[in-house]
Amino acid sequence: MMRRTLVAIALVFIATLSLLDHAGSNAPAMLRSAKLASSSQQPNAGYYLAGSDGSTYAFGTQSFGSTYSYGLTGLGGSHPLNAPIVGMAAVPNGGGYWLVAADGGVFDFGNASFYGSTYSYGLTGLGGSHPLNAPIVGMAAVPNGGGYWLVAADGGVFDFGNASFYGSLGNKTISAPIVAIAVAPSSTPQITTTALPGAVVDQSYKASINFTSGAGPTTLTATGLPPGLTLTPDGTLEGTPTTAGLSTLTITATDTEKTTTTQSIPLSITNPLQGQTTNPTSMASSNWAGYYVSPGSFKAITGTFTVPSLPANQPAYCEGAQGSPGCSLSEWVGIDGATNSSLIQAGVELTPQANGATEQIYPWWEILPNVQTNVSSLAIAPGDQITVNIFRTTSTNVWEIQIINDTTGNAFSTEQPYNGPAASAEWIAEAPSTTNQAILEVPTLGSPIEFTNLGVNTSTSGSVSSEVQSNLCQLLPDQPGTLANNSFQITQLSSAPQTGPCSTAGLLSSSAKLQK
After folding, report:
1. For 318, phi and psi rounded to 5 degrees?
2. What angle do CA 88, 92, 95 make, to 5 degrees?
């Protein structure tokens, strides 16, 4: 059974610690700090003020916290900011905001997602080996909340998330320092959705096409819709698809002045896993927990999973030698790897940091024999629902990999050459292995893992197998749970053994046949 390798995780962790030493508790790229609870209700109209010490004040609306919420102590005290706060931007839906410091550190609050900071560019704030040319003086949010811009006093502009780069004044002579940045209203409607969760035949489907309006109200229309799906003028794609295959939707946004924008979006529709399989079986694995189906000649796969929370105060064995992580968990969807040495896959990695007060959560994709590629442009938080689509495009031996955060509406996609036999398809939670093949322990999870909307397209039907992870990796010996309603759940032992690590675990297999 192929194991996904967690590449150089010790080096990643050490680099993160270095940034933390320099930037205090500011969250650099690919490191999520503990999120503050946010309200799902829209606040009343109002405004926020921010102090240079990271304090925030809300008028006519609700507050989502300040840098003191991160355990910082303003501009002095035992744990001060590395640099004063110089800017603030609100999420357009009113559910959160960002603060930015002069050194380019970004703090996120409420439902504001962290898309990176100037440290993501390899810069080292206001000092160090690769400092900013000038301090950051302001920030502005993308209208759909999917990113932001930072601007420096010399006019240098940094873009994050789905913020587009239009140019800057960096390395140019200007008459006076820049002090602010503002977003120019667009008179042309923009379609911001680039990827859609995969649909499954005969299962209810609903997704949103996100867009920004042009002049006056804007409506959406579509061509190329597969049978069973419709698009409402406000961008809701819904219905029950009846036919599997790859469709290309052509979405047009039209405002009151008849200004239009058109965008093509692929939509992969698969057959439900349970409808494609026969003769389910059970077996054991040292580091996988989930389902795979084989044999077949697979052309597409889709699956949706929740990102569990990682509680603070993780077991002692989660912090490995010399500060490198001893625990990690991957949730992924892939083709091949169960019965051969090929593999194309994508998913999300969760790794507790320090004593569990913070966690590293990042999406990734991988095609063996190459190492994984981490995706820093897509922010993911505990509790988010993630859909992974992998499908063969109309080009020969070219596959598209999509990772979609259904909770935020943001997505990542890439087209890559792949020549594997496509003989199996998998939906897996895994204790990844290091480059020396040592299997990491599974961290303590704050919630179960659930895989839903399982779908594949294949020219032959196969049998479902259940991969049962070792008890010492803290998963029940009869996990995963029964495959039912085209979904399954992986539940952690409530009183998990504290003896780790997984690399020394004996294999425990389930004798119960899985239900179709």
Report:
1. -75, -15
2. 85
Report the predicted TM-score, pTM, of the whole model to 2 decimal places: 0.65
Alpha carbon distance 348, 140 (integer Å): 28
Short-list 333, 322, 326, 290, CA closest to 443: 326
Residue 46: partners with Cβ closer than 8 Å, 6 or more residues away: 58, 59, 60, 61
Mean pLDDT of 269-284: 74
295 preceded by cis ω (within 30°)? Answer: yes
Whether 390 and 346 have beta carbons less than 8 Å apart is answered as yes
Listing DSSP states for 57-97 in one string gives EEESS-----GGGGT--TTSSSS--SS-EEEEEE-TTSSEE
456 and 201 Cβ atoms separated by less than 8 Å: no
- Which pLDDT value is given to residue 273? 86
Give phi and psi for 14, each to the nearest 5.
-65, -40
Task: Provide the token pair at 500.
Answer: 């780790």
Closest by CA position to 284, among listed 449, 512, 515: 512
Please enumerate in sequence order all residues whose Cβ is within 8 A of that of 25, keeping only pairs 6 or more positions apart, or say none: 33, 70, 71, 72, 79
Looking at residue 138, its pLDDT comes to 96
- The single-letter DSSP state of residue 42 is P
Burial class (CB in 10 A: 0-12, 13-18, 19+), 485: exposed
Q: Would you call 159 exposed, middle or buried from its count of C-beta atoms within 10 A (0-12, 13-18, 19+)?
A: middle
Residue entry with tokens 């008179």: 187
CA distance 368 to 267: 25
How is residue 121 written in tokens? 């560019």
- pLDDT tens-digit profile of 454-477? 999 987 666 777 665 544 354 444
Tokens of 390: 């992998």
Rounded-to-integer distance, Cα 209 and Cα 216, Å: 18
What pLDDT was estimated at residue 229? Answer: 97
Strands (E), 172-259: 190-191, 199-200, 205-208, 211-212, 219-223, 229-231, 236-239, 245-254
